Amino acid sequence: MSGEEKIESALREFLERKRISRRDFLKGCGVLAIALGLSQVDGAAKVALALATKPRPPVIWLSLQDCTGCTESLTRSQSPQLLNLILSDLSLDYHETLQAAAGAGAEESRLATMRDYAGKYVLVVEGSPTPQDGGVYCVLGGRSNIDVLKETAASAAAVVAVGNCACFGGIPGARQSPSGGVGVRDILGNGVVHIAGCPPIAEAITAVFVHLLVFDRLPELDGLGRPLETYRNTIHDRCVRRTFYDSGQYVKSFDDQGAKQGYCLYLLGCKGPTTYNACPTLRWNGGVSYPIQSGHPCLGCSEPHFWDGGGFYAGQSAPLASPSGVITAVAVAAGAALGVGAILAGRAKSRTTSSPAPPPPSDSSSQEEKTR
Amino acid sequence: MNDVLAFARGPLFYGSLIFFLVAMAFRLFRVLALRWQVDRAKPKGNAVEGAVVSLLKALLIFPFFPGLKGLPQRSALVFFAGGIFHLSLFLVIFFTAAHTLVWQSLLGFRWDPIPTPIIDGFTAATILALIVLAINRATNPVLRLLSGPSSYLNLLFVLTPFLTGFIMYHRLIQPYNAVFAIHMLAVDWLLVWIPLSRIAHFMFYFFSRPAHGAEFARRNAVP
Ligand code: HEM
Ligand code: SF4
Question: What is the number of CB-based contacts under 8 A between chain A and chain B?
């Protein structure tokens, strides 16, 4: 058999075993190729080959302070069949939501995976760790989340933080949150891959695993630890409404004529210009749409501390702190009092030294000219 | 860079704005406290009318129609550079889409922005105008005598927000956040610089105009 025939037969055997049509499979591979920043045709072939022939790494999926929305996003992936190909074979060995085992049995399966695949498994973290008050706000099997996280990371081949909470603290890390969530990097140090988003796009999550399979290494990361292939551009760079931004045509309220025309959402608080994510290209729900396309401004959910970014509808140029009317009035009054005081003090001084008072100036601005 | 931006948009902006308000009020009231000289001559015209007419002209006409009083002999280019610069400063600060959101958050209400391509044209013209004004200041023999380092710093500190805003809108330099942070730092600094410099004329202008107008009118001269 030639090399090509070997690949072909491996692929056929794989598709039969998985009961998936060739057409669906290649279509899904094309989507993943785009998520990896590869060309759709050549890239899809590479992805298909890797999926059909390479063994998957086992995965331990820790859920810390989370809402399970990231898991929800993942399991509602564009192509559930495709997800199965990647993740069932990835044999999610420990996932609190998806695994059958419970209680002590669940803990046992985590420890067994760590033992059997030391140095080979991928640790995925969903939700933010919390070291606050000795880690009492999140416990797994009676142990502090920080202990469990460190223990599980120690012999992992790679650590992937999924969702804004795991990456940057997210909602449990927002101002005034009593449980003080932090990012996984704050506990484990750099090197953790960040799949940012609230939640991240399913394909952005799977893309990391596919990258591992296809290239046998982790993807290149941006300054905030996010894979460049998915997070290279801002939402604004690829936005469907961009021409309206460029021509200055804005939606001014959610139900106006501009909203019906699909104008730019900048004035309603869109954070697209400063948010790095692949929503406009990968889109959601099987590539149907993404928030801006559906008429809602971008919240900036793949950026650190988006929750404290000054309000979802406040506009990204709006100041994050501005004085209230009372404080403004006090400031102006204080300045005025100082100004008048300076003159009165000067006059009192010249009186006590009993030199003749200078004649008042004829005009305010000419005096100002002299004092400058 | 996100942290620098958040600081420049948050606490630093807050602090700069408070300083601006205190310092401008200080300067204004220090002048007002000097009081007016009592003019005992019999008025030949209505001082209030003179003040109002002069203020209206100052608000509505002189800033926007630079050529109105006849072009000066020397250089039409410099004259219009000054006019365009002031007009577009006004338009950019109040009518750029991004800036209307700043005003909304400060005042609680918003007005419609001017379409960005128009603002952008003014921005480009202003950047050129500021360069023209700087060259003029450096080459004109009289202006040279009157100019110190702060005269050039005035131009530089006003130019920086224009330049960074232009770069931001066109996304000429990435990441956008970094340029945004510089834009904000430049604006924060400008808020501190204005009360310390002659740029404070933007406030005094609207007081000295009616003061002059009133005085002119009392003497029955056109303000
Ligand atoms: C709190 C104060 C300010 C904030 C938050 C702010 C914010 C912004 C933002 C976000 C943009 C970019 C808009 C975009 O990408 O579409 C921008 C543009 C711009 N800003 Fe500001 N800005 C402020 C004050 C100023 C001031 C005081 C000046 C001038 C002295 C200025 C001059 C400009 C200019 C010239 C542009 C570019 C307009 C264009 O070319 O379309 N900004 N500003
Ligand atoms: S809707 Fe948001 S991301 Fe899209 S063009 Fe407007 S500002 Fe940019």
Answer: 163
pLDDT in tens, B158-186: 999 999 999 999 989 888 889 999 999 99
Q: A-chain residues within 8 Å CB-CB of B210?
A: none
**Is A243 part of any domain?**
no
Q: Is residue A25 part of a domain?
A: yes
Q: Do residues A60 and A113 make contact, with C-beta atoms less than 8 angstroms apart?
A: yes
Give the pocket of ligand 2 (CB within 6 Å). A 235-236, 239, 241-242, 245, 264-266, 270, 272-273, 292, 298
Mean pLDDT of all residues belonging to chain A: 84
Measure A242 CA to ligand 1 centroid, in angstroms.
19
Q: Determine the pLDDT at residue B98.
A: 93
B180 touches chain A (CB under 8 A): yes
Q: For helices A80-87 and A22-35, what crossing angle results, to 10°?
A: 70
What CATH number did the domain enclosing A169 receive? 3.40.50.700
Residue range(s) defining the domain that contains residue A178 = 3-219
Q: Ligand 2, from A243, A244, A245, A313: best to mutate by most atoms within 8 Å of Cβ? A: A245
Q: How many domains is chain A partitioned into structurally?
A: 1
Amino acid letter, B20: F
**CATH number of the domain located at residue range(s) B2-30+67-218 in this protein:** 1.20.950.20
Is residue B8 lining ligand 1, measured as CB closer than 6 Å? no
Report CA(A242)–ligand 2 centroid distance (Å).
Answer: 6
Establish if A117 belongs to a structural domain: yes
Chain B CA closest to residue A237: B171
What b/e sequence results for B115-133 when a residue is b if at least 16 CB atoms lie within 10 Å of its CB, and e otherwise?
A: ebeebbebbebbbebbebb
Whole-prediction pTM: 0.84
pLDDT in tens, B78-122: 878 888 888 899 999 999 999 999 999 899 899 999 988 999 999
Cβ <8 Å between B33 and A362: no
- Closest ligand 1 atom, CA of B13? 1
What was the ipTM of the complex prediction? 0.83
B154: three-class secondary structure by DSSP: helix
Angstrom distances, CA of residue A78 to CA of A20, A49, A82, A119 = 15, 20, 8, 31
Residues A347, A353, A357, A358: is their CA dihedral positive or negative? Answer: negative
Question: Cα of B182 to ligand 2 centre, how many Å?
Answer: 22
Query: Does pLDDT of A106 surpass 70?
Result: yes
Q: Is the CB of residue A272 less than 8 Å from the CB of residue A241?
A: no
Confirm whether A64 is domain-assigned. Answer: yes
Spatial distance between the Cα atoms of A203 and A123, rounded to a whole number of angstroms: 18
Model confidence at A176, pLDDT cuts 50, 70, 90, reads: confident
Residues 6 or more apart whose Cβ sits within 8 Å of residue B112: A252, B100
Q: Are strands A139-140 and A143-144 parallel, antiparallel or unpaired?
A: antiparallel
Interface of B with A in 75-104 (CB under 8 A): 97-102, 104
Ligand 2 atom with least separation from CA of A235 = 3
